[in-house]
Specification:
With 66 residues, the protein is an all-alpha fold. Helices cover 97% and strands 0% of the residues. It has one helix and no strands. The protein is rod-shaped and about 95 Å long.
């Protein structure tokens, strides 16, 4: 009976280890995804600022030529 109980305990430990591993993988991947989304938002903001700066420079150039 002891061997069976040990086998069941080892199987349970193995399941717990796998569950913990999967939870850690999910957490890491969700953090990576969050970072990618944050970086995308920052890039969008920077792009909008740069587009506005280019527009201002083009308008200024047009005024100087006029």
């Amino acid at each position: 009976m002891g061997a069976l109980a040990n086998g069941i305990a080892e199987e349970k430990d193995s399941e717990n280890n796998l569950t913990n591993y999967n939870e850690n993988v999910i957490f890491r991947k969700s953090q990576e995804l969050k970072n990618l989304v944050d970086n995308l938002e920052k890039s969008k903001k920077k792009r909008a600022i740069l587009k506005e700066e280019v527009k201002i420079q083009e308008d200024k150039k047009d005024e100087d030529e006029a």
